[in-house]
């Protein structure tokens, strides 16, 4: 079985970074690709219990792919649900905090 922690960190890094660089005004094609990516996870993610759990979350809260701000927040909220389930600290989903972590780095 996969190392669920290593896989999780790598996957969140990929997803949050992809959301951080997603366009402010995505084209219909870009929106469709993002929806495809998010809907593929529950079908393909190598931790099957994580995949099942995430699929339920995506059903309960359909992804907002309208632009990078909304998408980044949506993803942050889903990640926080997993954090809470695992007893981890939650993350502040304000755009500035998300950009600092996943796009711009800390201000100097
Ligand atoms: P991670 O949770 O991997 O976070 C990595 C970094 O992201 C953190 O260091 C922090 O800087 C940043 N971060 C934290 N929270 C947020 C947020 N809300 N928004 C933006 N950035 C944030 N593990 C299980 O045991 N059971 C599961 O059911 C499960 N489901 C998962 C479902 C998915 C879709 C994914 C991608 C992972 C899942 N995992 C699950 C793995 C789990 O979420 C963690 O990745 C793993 O436990 C390693 O945790 P970590 O403490 O290193 O930080």
Give a brief outline of the structure.
70% of the residues lie in helices and 0% in strands. With 108 residues, it is mostly helical.
Q: What would you say this structure looks like, in words?
A:
The protein has one domain: Up-down Bundle (Four Helix Bundle (Hemerythrin (Met), subunit A)). The chain has helices at residues 4-20, 28-44, 48-60, 68-86, 95-104. α1 runs antiparallel to α4. The chain is 70% helix and 0% strand. By secondary structure, the protein is mainly alpha-helical. It contains five helices and no strands. It binds flavin-adenine dinucleotide (FAD). It catalyses: 2 R'C(R)SH + O2 = R'C(R)S-S(R)CR' + H2O2. It comes from Phanerochaete sordida. It is found in: Mitochondrion intermembrane space. Its EC number is 1.8.3.2. Keywords: Disulfide bond, FAD, Flavoprotein, Mitochondrion, Oxidoreductase.
Count of runs of 4 or more consecutive helical residues: 5
Report the CATH C-level class: Mainly Alpha
CATH domain topology: Four Helix Bundle (Hemerythrin (Met), subunit A)
Rg to the nearest angstrom?
A: 14 Å
Structural class determined from secondary elements: mainly alpha
> How much is the average pLDDT?
97
CATH H level, superfamily name = ERV/ALR sulfhydryl oxidase domain
Just name the CATH architecture: Up-down Bundle
Distance between the termini: 42 Å
Q: Uncertain segments of ≥5 residues (pLDDT<50)?
A: none
Helix % is over 70%
What is the count of structural domains? 1
- Taken as a percent bin, the fraction of beta residues is under 5%
Q: How is the biggest beta sheet arranged? A: none
Bound molecules: flavin-adenine dinucleotide
Shape: globular
Protein name: Sulfhydryl oxidase
Cofactor: FAD
EC number: 1.8.3.2
Subcellular location: Mitochondrion intermembrane space
């Amino acid at each position: 079985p996969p190392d669920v922690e290593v896989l999780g960190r790598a996957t969140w890094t990929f997803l949050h970074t992809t959301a951080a660089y997603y366009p402010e005004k995505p084209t219909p094609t870009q929106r469709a690709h993002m929806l495809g990516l998010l809907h593929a996870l529950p079908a393909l993610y190598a931790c099957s219990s994580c995949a099942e759990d995430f699929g339920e979350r995506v059903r309960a809260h359909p992804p907002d792919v309208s632009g990078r701000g909304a998408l980044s927040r949506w993803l942050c909220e889903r990640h926080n649900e997993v954090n809470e389930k695992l007893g981890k600290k939650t993350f502040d989903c304000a755009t500035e905090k998300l950009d600092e972590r996943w796009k711009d780095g800390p201000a100097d």
